[in-house]
Here is the input.
Amino acid sequence: MGAKGITRRRLRPYSGRSGTRRRRGRWSGDFIPAETRRTLPIVLPVAGAGTFAAVAAIHSLVVDWPGGSTIAGVAGLLVAAILSEAFPLPIEGVNAGATSLAIVFIVATAAIYGWPEAAVVGLITMVPVEVERKKPPIRAIFNTGLYVCAATVAGLAAAHWRGGGLWAIVVAGFLGSAAFYGVDMFLLSAVIARLRSQNFFVTLRRYVMTTVLPFLVIASLTVTLVVLWDRSPFVSLVVVGPLITIALYERWLHRALERLREFDRLKDEFIAVISHELRTPLTSVYGAALTLQNRDVHGKTRESLLAIVSDEAARLARLLDDVLSASRLDAKTERFEIIPTDAAEIARAAVEAVQPQLPSHLELDVVIEPKLPPVAADADKLRQILVNLRENAIKYSPDGGRIEIALSHHDSVVRFAVRDEGIGIAEDELAQIFDRFHRVDPNMTRGVGGTGLGLYISRELVEGMRGRMWVTSTEGEGSTFSFELPVA
Ligand code: ADP
Here is the structure.
């Protein structure tokens, strides 16, 4: 049920990432972001109606102060509502977001005690949760106003049936739920439609379609709670067990489905990246082989064609190694043979191996602190990491510059830093570059090939040897990939 209830998507007028950020004059009309201004015709009336309802509810309660048992009952429902609101449930198929079971308790308050109690419970449920979530004020105001309005309408809808026989109580619970849901859907659709400049009825239909089933479940839970409460508030505690079980099960199910979706996405990415990366060397090998087969080629041409075949075959083998390595790391079957290792020797070898083929516009140096202690590492894995980082530094320095591999000793760790003066990485990409298959936009990496596995493998290997890895970079100026391994 709701903008709040059934869905948790609600109002996002301050989602700061979108669009260009303009400088706003302090007192200019631009002071309020355009997105927020668009929603004001909905937010302001909701806030006004919510305030009016809350004041009227408090006034009514003060004038007609409820007895001790009512206060105790409302307090119990309030605590349950706050807890449910603080831990919303992701519901499969509800594309609008997560669902809060708080409505069960707010509507139950409406059906059992009346609209003033329900409005106050709605208000007190929302305020601490919204404050704790540090929602932008406009969203917090809208969500709170919405809850108070929906709770009030639920209380008024149930008023006629409250306190009657069994069927009257059932009707009160159901009407209260339906009224809350109706207000929630209506106002949520109105604000989202304005925010996205969509048709209100299309938005409303979409939200209702995806939330009607959870609404029926919530309405049934509410009716059950109200009926049990009528017998005895203590008996109604029996619904706590099923509610917690539903909540835990739903969360578990949601996490499992999220994992499956992630696997599915990775599979698609894997196929796209691997087929792209296979095609280039295969085309070269095929072309070279055909030329060697069909034409009488000798001397230098023959040598260069054979070099293409062997280089590209080696590239294919590396690609396969990366895929297998990533798969072993994923499955946690990679084995590490950690022994005291001379890191300086491995770093020097990694630099010397590539010096003869290094493009003339690149300079590659190794700087090793004197008396570097041995590290606790698997020598092959350490070599693999340094080669990965060295290859990236070369690949992503198309205009040349200096690359440095520096090793230094800090307390109980040895730090490795691979610095380059290449294209660098944009700040908003830094968090993702260690993800599997993640590659910065190919235009930004100037069309350099790659699978997006190298950094993932490197970081996993470092962590497998009880170390940590990170990057600092400035776009256009260069990057430093660093990692630390424990001293042996
Ligand atoms: P690959 O290089 O095969 O694409 P990696 O996992 O090694 O995969 O790197 C992931 C991405 O991180 C690269 O696509 C590139 O955009 C970026 N990157 C890695 N190293 C550097 C570097 N030294 N300079 C700039 N960008 C880098």
The pocket of adenosine-5'-diphosphate is lined by residues 392-393, 396, 420, 422-425, 433, 438-440, 445, 450-456, 479 (CB under 6 Å). Residues 269 and 275 are 10 Å apart (CA to CA).
